[in-house]
Amino acid sequence: MSPDDLKRQAAATALEQVRDGMKLGLGTGSTAKHFVELLGAKVRAGLNVIGVPTSEVTRADAERCGIPLTTLDEVDRLDITVDGADEIDGALNLVKGGGGALLREKIVAAASDRMIVIADDSKLVETLGRFPLPIEIIPFGLAATRHAIEQAMASCGISGELKLRSGKDGHAFVTDGGHWIIDAHLGRIPDATRLAATLSFIPGVVEHGLFIGLASSAVLASPQGIRIME
Ligand code: 5RP
């Protein structure tokens, strides 16, 4: 079974939670794309749902699949957001943003009654941090913000290389919000809650990829079957 088969299985399991009339957050990434495709098939068969995409890529995918879309200006709360993750720990804290959509992903997840994370089980880790932590920043004052991030990390007892993410054109990768991303190569984040709070205080940091306390469950697919973490 390929990693892609596992991602689709996780997406199919999350889809079982979707009911007629629900308002859904639609995640970003290769796993979330499976969910959008499977949801689209249900919509074309008559399921009545409405979605809020977490990126322009997901918007395009959802439109192509025929899923009706709305915005968080039109609806107050969402019933469920289904999204992938780069890392998941045993407490359902996440690292997200490998695909660069962390800001909208976090806004949409926070506006949802439930966030279901879908992934193959390679994403489950004992301690977050092996995957470089994406930190979305304002381009203005890059050096000052980088310095402040280093100080924030040091105050949490960690250090690591900070790399400005490049896009396909060799220039800085630009998010849907017009920001840049610094990937922090930390190796291990012993206290993710503390680091999340510390990073949030930095003026040039728009958002970071630590999702603390946002996920309600995770659907993890492995060749041995599906495991639900709650
Ligand atoms: C995008 C994300 C993705 O959910 C994360 O990168 C996982 O992606 P994939 O399902 O392709 O492994 O956070 O910003």
TrEMBL record:
Q: What is its EC number?
A: 5.3.1.6
Its UniProt entry gives the catalysed reaction(s) as: aldehydo-D-ribose 5-phosphate = D-ribulose 5-phosphate
Q: Where is the active site?
A: E105
The pathway to which it is assigned is: Carbohydrate degradation; pentose phosphate pathway; D-ribose 5-phosphate from D-ribulose 5-phosphate (non-oxidative stage): step 1/1
Q: Which GO terms describe its molecular function?
A: ribose-5-phosphate isomerase activity
Enzyme class, UniProt record, top EC level: isomerase
Q: What InterPro entries would the database entry show?
A: NagB/RpiA_transferase-like (IPR037171), Ribose-5P_isomerase (IPR050262), Ribose5P_isomerase_typA_subgr (IPR020672), Ribose5P_isomerase_type_A (IPR004788)
UniProtKB keywords: Isomerase
GO biological processes: pentose-phosphate shunt, non-oxidative branch
Q: Which residues bind substrate?
A: T28, G29, S30, T31, D83, G84, A85, D86, K96, G97, G98, G99, K123
Q: Specify whether Nucleotide-binding is a keyword of the entry.
A: no
**HAMAP family assigned to the protein according to its UniProt record, in alphabetical order:** Rib_5P_isom_A (MF_00170)
Subunit-level organization: Homodimer.
According to its UniProt record, which protein family does this protein belong to? Belongs to the ribose 5-phosphate isomerase family.
User: Which purpose does this protein serve, as stated in its record?
Assistant: Catalyzes the reversible conversion of ribose-5-phosphate to ribulose 5-phosphate.
Listed name of the protein: Ribose-5-phosphate isomerase A
Gene name in the database record: rpiA
